[in-house]
Amino acid sequence: MTLEQFRRTLAKRAPPGEISAPLAALWWAAKGDWERAHGIVMEAPGKDAAWVHAYLHRVEGDLPNARYWYGQAGRTATSAPLAAEWDEIARALL
Q: Cα angle vertex 57, ends 64, 19, to 5°?
């Protein structure tokens, strides 16, 4: 699936069934459901989930918590625009 195909799924009521938990969380974040997205990454293991978790805490404005999760993901904290980071994560996970 390409980034554009993934974006088109945002018009639906639920994320595509074949995507990973971190991508599903990113999908819900794009739909404005931070709580649901956060719940997914809280339960998902691995660096991809940690990266999405970091992004979600940036969205929330909790930068110290975001930095912690970037560390768990093995990534450097970013100050890129949130939309650009969403695209970067989505591309990497697709």
A: 140
Contacts of 5 (CB under 8 A, 6+ apart): none
Q: Has residue 42 been placed in a domain?
A: yes
Q: Give per-residue pLDDT as tens, 3-38.
A: 999 999 999 999 999 999 999 999 999 999 999 999
Give pTM, 2 decimals. Answer: 0.95
**Could you tell me if residue 64 is inside a domain?**
yes
CA dihedral 61, 32, 21, 87 (to 10 degrees): -70
d(CA 58, CA 60): 5
Q: Tell me the helices (H) and strands (E) count for the chain, helix number first.
A: 6, 0
Number of domains, the chain: 1
Q: Which domain holds residue 37?
A: 19-93
